[in-house]
Design goal:
By secondary structure, this protein is an alpha/beta fold. 36% of the residues lie in helices and 11% in strands. It is built from 11 helices and 10 strands.
Length: 413
């Protein structure tokens, strides 16, 4: 059977069955071959590529595009072209997210040694009880080694009787001045709502006013630093019993949290913040709380001769405190009770917010009692604030302008 003839480009020469015998003029075609034999072999190669190799390659490409290829596992270690480190990541212009304050977004304030600025801003009017807050006091307090002050404030005598119970702007300005004096010396400040006597006598009639005043105070100080703390109410007593006070303190705390979600707030039990009434306190679920108690036992010693304690107090004059084993054991057992209660309540922070002995007691006994009470508080990790700076219990003599050294060393050895 004859053989199909192809031209130099591998094209079929139709109608011809004789062998292809190219002549010399065909060399001029593509100029690819040097001889007739080369040109003939080239024609055969071209025919093979077009009719056999190219279709096979096209078929492979089509199949490879339709069937997913599973890579074979490799034992070779691949080296990344760019090391995966943060320093080589390109910078972006994405802003940092804004955090919304939560109950855990601020660290707690560490209080240790404090003093009460008593008989000043909690008098019906400042100065009415013989003392004005002086800026120099804060230098003295800081230099002596204290790290915070408790500032009793009688807000209720400077607020309206009817809604919205507006606090006098001038009084706010005065409290601001005092708070700023403390902050300027790196002293923390507990702003304490003190001597709201009507609240004790008729709590149900004064609750709305109490909450209204706190709303103003909280909003007023919401931009102040975290070392300004709030104390909701000093020594709830009388008709403001434990059940009612637990309800009111929760409502007051909610008011404060509207504008101060993470500020530390001090709360204490009913019955004059007595140590053995902490068990009656319902502690809200809030990580920024400090529980306070006050300690003046034996009362006949610490309040002997106190004019406001009644005629009976005059009979106590001459009582001493000799630091006997039994006397110390009594204080130890009381403080142990508070510490054990705190452990059962998530180790809530404890503040011994007031303790002291009145000036009618002998100084040696006052020093012994103060030193032991302070040491027991520190043994349990309680913060403490001595009552008070410069009045009847005072560690400072404002007339002579000197510290009462025995008391000061009893507090800060």
């Amino acid at each position: 059977m004859g053989r199909r003839n192809l031209d130099v480009h591998g094209k079929l020469l139709l109608g011809s069955w004789k062998p292809y015998t190219p002549d010399k003029k065909d060399r001029g075609g593509l100029g690819l071959f040097d001889s007739k034999a080369d040109r003939y072999n080239g024609a055969r190669l071209s025919f093979f590529m077009k009719h056999f190799l190219f279709p096979v390659l096209i078929f492979i490409l089509i199949v490879s595009g339709c069937v997913p290829l599973t890579p074979m596992p490799s034992t070779m270690t691949t080296v990344p072209s760019v090391p995966p480190t943060e320093t080589l990541m390109p910078p972006t212009n994405t802003p940092e997210p804004t955090l919304t304050p939560t109950s855990t977004s601020a660290p707690p304030i560490a209080l240790r040694r404090g003093v009460n600025l008593g008989n000043m801003l909690e008098a019906p009017q400042e100065g009415e009880w013989g003392l004005f807050v002086q800026e120099e006091y804060f230098d003295l307090i800081r230099e002596a080694g204290f790290d915070f002050v408790r500032l009793p404030v009688r807000w209720n005598t400077h607020a309206g009787q009817e809604w919205p119970y507006t606090v006098e702007p001038g009084f706010f300005a005065r409290v601001d001045e005092v708070v700023d004096w403390a902050l300027g010396r790196d002293l923390a400040v507990i702003v304490d709502f003190h001597h709201y006597e009507e609240m004790m006598w008729e709590p149900w009639s004064n609750k709305d006013r109490f909450l209204g005043i706190w709303r103003q105070v909280a909003e007023h100080y919401q931009e102040y630093p975290s070392n300004v703390l709030f104390e909701l109410l000093n020594e709830p007593n009388d008709q403001l019993n434990a059940s009612l006070w637990n309800q009111y303190l929760e409502e007051a705390l909610a008011v404060v949290r509207e504008s101060n979600p993470t500020r530390d707030v001090v709360i204490g039990p009913a019955s004059w913040n007595a140590y053995d009434w902490v068990s009656t306190l319902d502690v809200p679920n809030d990580e920024h709380l400090i529980v306070t108690f006050h300690y003046y036992l034996p009362f006949e010693f610490t309040h002997q001769g106190a004019e406001w304690a009644g005629e009976e107090a005059q009979k106590w004059l001459g009582r001493t405190w000799e630091a006997s084993d039994s006397a110390k054991a009594e204080i130890t057992s009381h403080f142990n009770l508070v510490a054990e209660w705190a452990k059962r309540h998530k180790n809530v922070r404890i503040l011994l917010g007031e303790f002291g002995a009145y000036s009618r007691a002998d100084m040696d006994s006052r020093v012994r009692w103060t030193a032991f009470a302070r040491s027991e508080a520190e043994r349990h990790g309680f913060a403490w604030a001595y009552w008070e700076f410069a009045s009847g219990f005072g560690i400072y003599d404002p007339e002579a302008g000197v510290w009462r050294e025995g008391l000061l060393k009893a507090l800060i050895p």
